[in-house]
Amino acid sequence: MSLRTGTAHKVVARNPIVEMDGDEMTRVIWAMVKQQLIEPFVELKLEPYDLFLPNRDRTDDAVTLQAAEAIKRHGVGVKCATITPDANRVKEYDLKKAWPSPNGTIRAILDGTVFRKPIIVRNVPPMVRSWQKPIVIGRHAYGDVYRDVEMKIPGPGRVEMTYTPAAGGTPQTVVVHDFKGPGVVKGEHNTEKSIRSFARACIRYALGEKLDLWFAAKDTISKTYHAAFKEIFREEVDTRRADFEKAGLTYQYLLIDDAVARVMRHPGGFLWACRNYDGDIFSDMLASGFGSLGLMTSVLVSPDGHFEYEAAHGTVQRHYYQHQKGEPTSTNSTATIFAWTGALAKRGELDDTPELVAFARALEESVIETIESGIVTKDLAAIAQPPIAKHVSTEGFINAIGERLTHKVGAGLALL
Questions:
Q1: Is the pLDDT assigned to residue 99 strictly greater than 50?
Q2: Would you say the pTM of this structure is higher than 0.85?
């Protein structure tokens, strides 16, 4: 069987993908990618949720919760980049309030781990000379600062933290701080269940991808909170120790500062498991080090077997303002395209539809071949080797990918 152009010969997605549209320039790109690179070739079944900031405001953010629950029902979602509003955005969009991060909300509902992996192209070499293979970040997607509670302290006084057993018994209280004047305080939490599922997800990923596994925290300072992560990770690795040895893979725990120092001199080819905040920071560092946030895949894997694919970057606000003025833009759509291909491939894998998986891989190949041929957006032209003097527009980049994809399809791309 081969994929051909024309509606009658489209690849069929058997079950729905939850589609979450977003904001600003990525919203513009989202529509272009779907209309030009996917819909001509795939008969999609989508359950759409519009996470456009004004719609989140109109629904009191209920639409975000609905999208997360839909991913639980259907198993696969794909998400456009969205705005997390600050005070300036509240004023700009005349919002009722500064709504929370949609990513944080969805991750809290689905739990799980976010895996971010750089997209390697030959003419965009890593900024760090020692990096020869991809370094994958496994980011715990629950709790810590993203689910904290905070308080502004107006003046002198004591802040305490108390645990009251649900089954009765004596409460336990610790003093957080005796304030002599104004200050701030916050409380963070996590659960053993979530930490354990995080460890298991990273172990499965490392064994499946044949990667050594690192986990890093700061248990020398946080002797209870961080130490719990360390101990749970050790316990879970011990249950799979024979599998690691059979595969010739290693696991090591590092202090987070030691891990940062080592990663700058490491050749790569491993999975770096990070707590929520650390993963947020270091995934961006690795993306920049390997080329660009526009060259990074991101997937949330829940312990219940649900998958949410997204672009790892923001909404590209500056380009959107240019677009609104009718000015040309040169925005890299690679990560957005790979969010779609990840979701399509996973849908095909779960539904036993190999032709859908093959289409997704063909689209990814078309993107990489386009970049390696020297047709790039402005961000990549600046870091390509050899340097590329002329970049293409947002539309020009997507059109060039579409031409390659159509050629593959027209040439009789084998899907089965």
A1: yes
A2: yes
